[in-house]
Amino acid sequence: MPKNEVVETSEAQIAVHWQEEKYYYPSSKFIAQANLTNEDVYKRFSLDNFPECFKEYADLIDWYEYWHTTLDTSDAPCWKWFVGGKINASYNCIDRHLKNNKNKTAIHFVPELENEKIEHITYQELYVKVNEFAALLQSFAGLKTGDRVTIHMPMVPELPIAMLACARLGLIHSVVFGGFSGKACADRIVDSGSKVLITMDAYYRNGVLLDHKEKANIAVDQVEKEGQGIDKVLIWQRYPDKYSSRTSIIEGRDFIVNNILKDYRGKKIDPVKISAEAPLFLMYTSGTTGKPKGCQHSTGGYLAYVAGTSKYIQDIHPEDVYWCMADIGWITGHSYIVYGPLSLCASIVLYEGIPTYPDAGRPWRIAEELDVNIFHTAPTAIRGLRKIGPEEPLKYNYHFKHMTTVGEPIEPEVWKWYYEVVGKSEAVIADTWWQTETGGFLCATVPALNPMKPGSTGPGVPGIHPIIYDDHGKEIVAGEGRAGNICIKNPWPGSFQTIWGDRDRYVGTYYARYCKNQNSKDWRDWPYLTGDAAMEAEDGYFRILGRIDDVINVSGHRLGTKEIESAALIVPEVAEAAVVPVADDLKGTVPDLYIALKPGNPPSEEISSRISEAITESIGKIAKPRKVWIVSDMPKTRSGKIMRRVLAALSNKKEVGDTTTLANPDVVDEIQKMTSI
Ligand code: WTA
């Protein structure tokens, strides 16, 4: 049996526990227009009707060929949905809308600089651009169905255009968050075996035009060092016909997309009819070991699931203007900026920059100008906007009907500001809990059906049946007041298919823990382990407490402690590194790094900054530790294991608890003195 990745340290142990909150109810105005108002839905999606219930979601999209088997469990726990079906995601997000909506805006692109004009791209224009770029990928780059393509781009329309062009040809895209370093991009290129890297020369962030192409150079060098090659680097220009990077163009390897596209003007590419289970994309995420996991998502099941949840949980209608402030480089952006909303023919807003540029009124000016009525963001952004501009939303004349929060637990106090000030007490809030692996929402309130409860996500969304187990596999029931490991009893179409190239790790990490019979082909034997700790209140609402594995959630972004620690170990003086999450008012949690140096190296500021630098270079700025603590030794068990729980308590200025099992309890006092200053 593969070893599962769950380890002793738990964020839940340092999680803030708050009181039960009172309910908030959706307005009758919201209910009157909502997509889902029939209570019956929970019955329709009950386990008795599983898996056929998901036909309802699959019927929201167009199929070239209908499937013959809704769920095939023969290779459990690698689930196959809608087997026999033929489909294309690009067709579903674009072509099928042309008949009635070709002049409708598909993408409102808002550049970060406020004096640059907002670009409105219609569905017809999107169709043309996606076709031309698909033609380029096919003819110029020589890519074929099933090839992987790495895309490392900022928040510009060319990013969804590139994704949809890949989808059109059945290429598997692997989008790497633009803020990640060249090295992090390289790791993902190597793991996915991509031969083509799509990037951009530069983009704006916080008022500065950042050179992005330089990361591509670092990435390709690194990939080559690892014995793999990149055939072509395709470079979009932030300003067409102007190259905004200091780096030079490497002959025969680097190509400016806008120059080559001229050869493909007006070219049309028939969408490839691919099977429902063919992978649509890989999305890398952090796990317990250093190596990021490529979550492999299907085409048919995934698209059906994100269309269904966008329609019923986000309440997207074709006439809505929908703005999700997440980055497309994360799963939220894939599911709920690109594939879900576009498959429903919504108009989406794509904003290049940070929410507080040039001031905390920016998001509300954008909302006012574009008449955004559905808004979607993460607690970290809400906290930031509340801190800097608590009154700003009141100055602008916009009206949201619906708002989403995602990525980390939201404190009730912050929730109430979101509701009362941002939402002007008019909008419903959906606190959506889910993961890169799950493709779409797991828990949330159905906005017109369930009241909201600040700080709690909600019940399982239709068709998702959560269950909480204790460490011994015993179920913890609703209202028991105990936390445990939240699992999902049943498969669902949005779920990832496997970890790219590592089925054992997939089974070991997500399914082995509570599976009683690993030979079983019955889905009932395979509860999905989410890796989160949670509690279920009497009303069936879940409260998510945090990770049970070595993953740190910084501003709603997952970082593996091992990834950060391995980066620190690149600095030659470092003997040992341990990362722990520290509570932070704005970001939720931030990493604190403990370092033990090799003998003969005295601690210095210079070493600390080299360590921080190494982490930024390896992963990106988001992983930079709040503080590097150089200690004489790590608190360890007698078997030599670093006790991260103790370090986490010290960083968070909490009680350390029992240290009798430590081999070196004295070191705790020493570290306490250091961290308490
Ligand atoms: C956390 C992001 C509390 C959780 C979509 C999960 C949340 C991890 C919520 C996945 C929420 C996500 N309330 N915690 N509403 N949403 N999380 O893969 O710990 O980047 O396991 O996917 O974020 O992060 P990921």
Which descriptors apply to this entry?
677 residues, seven-stranded mixed β-sheet, alpha/beta, disordered N terminus, binds 5'-O-[(S)-ethoxy(hydroxy)phosphoryl]adenosine, globular
Q: What is shown here, in short?
A:
A hairpin with a 5-residue loop joins strand 25 and strand 26 (542-547). The protein has 677 residues and is α/β, with parallel strands linked by helices. The chain binds 5'-O-[(S)-ethoxy(hydroxy)phosphoryl]adenosine.
Quickly give the structural class: alpha/beta
Cα Rg:
24 Å
Give me the count of strands: 31
Head-to-tail CA distance between termini: 47 Å
Ligand inventory reads:
5'-O-[(S)-ethoxy(hydroxy)phosphoryl]adenosine
| Percentage of β-strand residues | 15-25%
* Strand order within the widest beta sheet: 12-11-8-6-7-14-15-24
Please summarize the sheet with the most strands: 8 strands, mixed
Enumerate the spans where pLDDT stays under 50 for 5 or more consecutive residues: 1-17
Return the average pLDDT rounded to an integer.
94
The level of helicity is: 25-40%
Q: Number of helical runs?
A: 19
The gross shape turns out to be globular
